[in-house]
Amino acid sequence: MIDQAEHGGLRRALEIAAHPAVPFGPNPRVGCVLLGPDSRVIAEGYHRGAGTAHAEVDALARAGSADTVGATAIVTLEPCAHTGRTGPCTQALIDAGIRRVVIGRRDPNPVAAGGVEVLRAAGIEVDADVPAELAAEAAALNRGWEHGLWHARPLVTAKLALTLDGRVAAADGSSRWITGSAAREWVHRLRARCDVVLVGAGTARADLPALTARRTDGTLHPRQPLRAVMGLGRVPDLPTPERAVPAVQLRTHDPSEALADLHARGRRHVLLEGGPTLAAVFLTAGLVDELIVHLAPKLLGAGPAAIGSLGIGTIADALALDLVDTTLLTSPDGRTDLQLTLRPPAA
C-alpha cells in the first residue's frame, strides 16, 4: 500500500492531469508527481495532448538539476512501454534512476500496456495497490478515452430535465426554467467535462442554443466542448461567444454515423442535449451509455414528453435501466431538484 506522502502525490497528480488547459481527445490525460527519497516533491508534470511530452517525461524535464536517483514517480496511468510520437516513458524512468513507481490505473490500451512488467524487470518497485477512491478517480479521468478503445465510438451521456409527469415543456412550448439554478450550474460543469455537446437540427432551429460551458458568474469555462448539430436541412448559425468552439453540422440522421464522424474528429465523450426526438433516436439504437435526469418537483399535465417514441408497445418490452446514483441539487433559493444517474444493464 502507498504511504501518506504518496497518497498526497497521487491526489495532486490527478488534479494536474485534469488541468483545464489539457485538451480532450484521442489521448489520455495523465499527471505525474516526483517525490525525493525524503518524500518532498521534486517536480510535477502532465500530458498536454497528442504529440507533446508524456507526463513522466514532462516531470523529469521540470526536475531540472534535482537528483532523481532513488526518487518515486507517482503516475495516474501506467507508464507506456512503446514508441509512438514519443519514446517509452518506462525507459525515461529507468534512465532517471527512479526507485519506485506508484500507478493510479493500469493502461487498458494493449498497444501501450506492459509498463509495469518492464519497470519491474529493471529492478524498479511498482505499486498499483492504491486506495479505492483514488483508483476510481483515475478511472473516471479518462472514461471517454477508455470507452473509445473498446467500442471505437465516443461515450454518450444523455441529459434530460423534466417534471414529475415527464414533461420537458409546457403546452405553450415554454420550458425556462423547469429546474433550479443548482441543476443548471451542474449541467455547465458536465459540459466542461465532455468534448462534444450534440443537439438535433430541430432544437437548433427552434432555440438557437449557445451550448457553451459557463461558470456561475456567467463567464465561459476555460474548457469548451465542440458544439454539434445533427440532421439534414439548413441550420442557422448558433451564437458563438468569444472562445467558444465553432459549431459543426453532421449531415446525417443516423446516430451511428454521427458518432463515427465525431470519433474520427478525435472526440471521445458526447453529451446529448437535444429534444425528445434526438434522445429517442439514440436510445432506440442502443447508443446511450449514461442517462442523467434532472427531475423537478412540478406538474404540467400537458406538453411534450421527455422521450419520443421508442417503438415499444407493451410493458414487457420496456427499456430497463440501472439506477446507479441519486443526488439532491439545492439552489440558493431553497429549490431542490432530484438528479438520477442511470445506465443500461451491463452485458
TrEMBL record:
Protein name: Riboflavin biosynthesis protein RibD
Organism: Occultella gossypii
Family in the record: In the C-terminal section; belongs to the HTP reductase family.
Cofactor(s) the protein requires to work: Zn(2+)
Gene coding for it: ribD
Lineage, highest ranks first: Bacteria, Bacillati, Actinomycetota, Actinomycetes, Micrococcales
SUPFAM superfamilies (UniProt xref): Cytidine deaminase-like (SSF53927), Dihydrofolate reductase-like (SSF53597)
Entry's EC annotation: 3.5.4.26, 1.1.1.193
Catalytic reaction equation(s): 2,5-diamino-6-hydroxy-4-(5-phosphoribosylamino)-pyrimidine + H2O + H(+) = 5-amino-6-(5-phospho-D-ribosylamino)uracil + NH4(+); 5-amino-6-(5-phospho-D-ribitylamino)uracil + NADP(+) = 5-amino-6-(5-phospho-D-ribosylamino)uracil + NADPH + H(+)
Gene Ontology molecular function terms on file: 5-amino-6-(5-phosphoribosylamino)uracil reductase activity; diaminohydroxyphosphoribosylaminopyrimidine deaminase activity
Domain CMP/dCMP-type deaminase: 4-127
